[in-house]
Amino acid sequence: MGLFDRLMGKSGLEEGLREYRAAQDALLVDVRTREEYRQGHLKGSLNLPLDELSASKLPQGKTLYVYCQSGARSGAACRLLKSRGYEARNIGGLFGYAGELEEGEGA
User: Fold this and answer.
1) What fold characterizes domain 3-93?
2) Is 78 labeled as catalytic in the residue annotation?
3) CA separation, residue 87 to residues 2, 77, 80 (Å)
4) Model pTM?
């Protein structure tokens, strides 16, 4: 889900986080820039900026739950990941998210 869903009152990120937490063999992936990630990210997430994603090697067989700031970059990331054979879910963006975020380098 993206910015439009947020404006319409839908909570894609929170729903996606519930699915991620209930899943086995899943990774939470933040595709924002390193600076955005340092300023605040979801606990346990892996930072793989969108512009570095194509060169990244991720484990096969895991569902990737992908987020960014608004849902646009995570959507692009999911399209790329799916084209490379990964199971990827766009869970949207942090825009409007009221939950807890970690600062610093994180996971």
Assistant:
1) Oxidized Rhodanese; domain 1 (3.40.250)
2) no
3) 19, 11, 11
4) 0.87
